[in-house]
């Protein structure tokens, strides 16, 4: 691409004149990796095309929602039909009930659910609900977990904040986060100490069970088990933030993955987003009836939204859930993701590049570290400069991964074995250049 035919750069310059940093969500600006963000014109299946007409195999999938790939015919049909019927009514619809029923059917810990428009809104409302239901103020979160950009949760968070080296946002008054207790992920001892100190004041413990905002780090089974035990023992609520994991790592979400090792395991509140909207602005939080009945208009915890349960978004989400419920869907998706991850590990090993990777369902992550990290501090030891070379090497050759070290990747049902094989072969080329 000669400078005169490149359209991404002039678009970025134009964007920067009218939008802070040229983007509507910081990580898209390529600030950490350098270079010019690609302005996407269209997408289909596993591919996206930028303003220069370059094709990319897409492993971002709109940061998670596009589990079926782009432009799935059944989803398109549902969205087109819903759009013709009306964009927004600000009144209840049958489709909202259907979507709530589908979520409850798939996630046994959820008996009632409230639909909202974004993961941030869902996380923020879940915290308010936990505080309202328990009459307590303190919330426990873990370093590197990102639960959206609500004030009380923007402390030592991952995602874009980690990328810019400032895990706590400016503009959040100390008073607002005085009740937020931040602990190390996977550190049982710290958790026990926090409960010993504040047990009677803790409204909830909130966790990304398979954290996707410090790349991909699993909460260990003993850690999740201890969180559950301590919450129950002290009357606190255990909140699973499954915005990334829900309907992505397994049909029943991360909680169904942990229930394999912890019989009967259930969180009290689940926060969902991304896949349930299928690419439209839709998110949710749900839990046991006794907890959810604290929500207005039944109870005194207030939350509302003009676009909550939007008819086009719910049509998109329902059509997406219908597809991922098909027998064998998750087996096939998990197998593709596993093939990708194993292939990348083998390619890095062949070129002598220290590399570790992990996956669950259609979500994966990798590190330029010899072993998988267990917490944020270890994630931070990753070699950022080397990651940037890897990122640009892949991007130039048509493989689009997240432009930051701290973000998980996503495989869709539209990724064919050929796409995966092509990705691994491109990665091997790039690893070769990294080894030099
Ligand atoms: N919160 C997303 C990363 N974990 C970024 C979303 C976006 O930029 O679209």
TrEMBL record:
Cofactor requirement: pyridoxal 5'-phosphate
CDD domains (UniProt xref): OAT_like
Keyword terms: Cytoplasm, Isomerase, Porphyrin biosynthesis, Pyridoxal phosphate
Gene3D superfamilies (UniProt xref): Aspartate Aminotransferase, domain 1 (3.90.1150.10), Type I PLP-dependent aspartate aminotransferase-like (Major domain) (3.40.640.10)
Organism superkingdom: Bacteria
Compartments where located: Cytoplasm
TM regions (residue ranges): none
Reaction(s) catalysed (UniProt annotation): (S)-4-amino-5-oxopentanoate = 5-aminolevulinate
GO molecular function, one term: pyridoxal phosphate binding
Modification N6-(pyridoxal phosphate)lysine, positions: 274
Enzyme Commission number(s) of this protein: 5.4.3.8
Pathway it works in: Porphyrin-containing compound metabolism; protoporphyrin-IX biosynthesis; 5-aminolevulinate from L-glutamyl-tRNA(Glu): step 2/2
Enzyme kind, highest EC tier: isomerase
Entry GO CC: cytoplasm
Chief localization: cytoplasm
Record's subunit section: Homodimer.
NCBIfam families assigned to the protein according to its UniProt record, in alphabetical order: hemL (TIGR00713), PRK00062.1 (NF000818)
UniProt record similarity statement: Belongs to the class-III pyridoxal-phosphate-dependent aminotransferase family. HemL subfamily.
Protein name as catalogued: Glutamate-1-semialdehyde 2,1-aminomutase
Organism: Simplicispira metamorpha
């Amino acid at each position: 691409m000669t400078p005169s035919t490149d359209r991404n750069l002039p678009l970025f310059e134009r964007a920067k004149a009218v939008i802070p940093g040229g983007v509507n969500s910081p990580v898209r600006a390529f600030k950490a990796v350098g270079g010019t963000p690609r302005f996407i014109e269209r997408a289909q299946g596993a591919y996206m095309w930028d303003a220069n007409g370059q094709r990319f195999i897409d492993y971002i999938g709109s940061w998670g929602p596009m589990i079926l790939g782009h432009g799935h015919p059944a989803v398109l049909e549902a969205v087109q039909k819903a759009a013709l019927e009306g964009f927004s009514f600000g009144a209840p619809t049958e489709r909202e009930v259907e979507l709530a029923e589908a979520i409850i059917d798939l996630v046994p810990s959820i008996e009632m659910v409230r639909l909202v428009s974004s993961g941030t809104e869902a996380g923020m409302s879940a915290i308010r609900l936990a505080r309202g239901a328990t009459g307590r103020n303190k919330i426990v979160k873990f370093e590197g977990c990102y639960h959206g950009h609500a004030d009380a949760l923007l402390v030592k968070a991952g995602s874009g904040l980690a990328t810019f080296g400032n895990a706590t946002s400016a503009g959040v008054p100390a008073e607002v986060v005085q009740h937020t207790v931040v602990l190390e992920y996977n550190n049982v001892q710290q958790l026990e100490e926090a409960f010993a100190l504040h047990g009677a004041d803790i409204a909830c413990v909130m966790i990304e069970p398979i954290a996707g905002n410090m790349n991909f780090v699993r909460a260990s089974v003993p850690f999740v088990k201890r969180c559950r035990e301590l919450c129950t023992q002290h009357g606190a609520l255990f909140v699973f933030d499954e915005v990334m994991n829900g309907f992505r790592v397994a049909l029943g979400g991360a909680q169904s993955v942990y229930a394999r090792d912890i019989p009967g395991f259930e969180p009290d509140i689940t926060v969902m987003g991304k896949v349930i909207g299928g690419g439209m602005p839709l998110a949710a939080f749900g839990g046991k009836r006794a907890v959810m009945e604290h929500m207005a208009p039944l109870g005194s915890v207030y939350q509302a939204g003009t676009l909550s349960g939007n008819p086009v978004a719910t049509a998109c989400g329902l059509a997406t859930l219908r597809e991922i419920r098909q027998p064998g869907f998750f087996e096939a998706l998990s197998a593709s993701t596993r093939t990708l991850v194993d292939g990348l590990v083998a390619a890095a090993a062949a070129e002598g590049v220290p590399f570790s990777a992990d996956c669950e369902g259609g979500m994966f992550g990798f590190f330029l570290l010899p072993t998988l990290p267990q917490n944020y501090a270890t994630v931070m030891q990753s070699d950022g400069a080397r990651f940037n070379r890897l990122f640009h090497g892949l991007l130039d050759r048509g493989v689009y991964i997240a432009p930051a070290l701290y973000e998980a990747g996503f495989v869709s049902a539209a990724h064919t074995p050929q796409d995966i094989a092509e990705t691994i072969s491109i990665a091997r080329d790039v690893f070769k250049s990294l080894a030099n």
